[in-house]
Amino acid sequence: MPCKGLWNYLLVDVEGNITTCCLDSDLKNKIGNLSEMDLFEALNSEKLKRWRQAQLEGRFEDSGPHCMECNYLAAEQMTEDEVSEITKDDE
Ligand code: SF4
C-alpha cells in the first residue's frame, strides 16, 4: 500500500525547500523551492504525480529517492478503501 505522505503532506524548510515529508531532512525527495513554485504547484507537480503512481503500482523503487529508505509507515500506510477512493476515476 502507498504512503499517505505523498498525498497528504508537504514539508517546507527554513530556506523554502519543499519536500514530501518531515522524514526527508536531507531533501532527497526535494520537489522544488518556494522561490520557484507555490505549494499548490508542488502538490500538483509532475514529479509528485509520478512518485504517487509508482507507489500505487507497488514500484517503490521508482518513487521518491527517500521513500525506499524510510519507514514509510511513520507517515501512515493507506488503507485499501483510501486507495480505491483515489483511483476510482481511473477505472
Ligand atoms: S514513503 Fe517515506 S519518504 Fe516517502 S513520502 Fe512516505 S514517509 Fe515520506
Task: Explain how this protein is built.
The structure is a single chain. The chain is α+β, with helices and mostly antiparallel strands and 91 residues long. It contains four helices and three strands. It has a three-stranded antiparallel β-sheet with strand order 1-2-3, with no helix packed on it. A hairpin with a 4-residue loop joins strand 1 and strand 2 (17-19). The longest helix has 11 residues, at 46-56. The two termini are 18 Å apart. The structure holds iron/sulfur cluster. Iron/sulfur cluster (SF4) binds at residues 3, 5-6, 20-21, 23-24, 29, 64, 66-67, 70, 72, 74-75.
What's the short story on this structure?
This protein is an alpha+beta fold. 31% of the residues lie in helices and 8% in strands. It is built from four helices and three strands; from the N terminus they run αβββααα.
Give the mean pLDDT: 90
Number of strands: 3
Number of helices: 4
Q: Give the uncertain stretches in residue-range form.
A: none
Q: Please give the share of residues in helix.
A: 25-40%
Termini separation comes to 18 Å
- The gross shape turns out to be globular
Spatial strand order of the main sheet: 1-2-3
Structural class: alpha+beta
Reported for the largest beta sheet, the result is:
3 strands, antiparallel
Proportion of residues in β-strands? 5-15%
What are the distinct ligands in this entry? iron/sulfur cluster
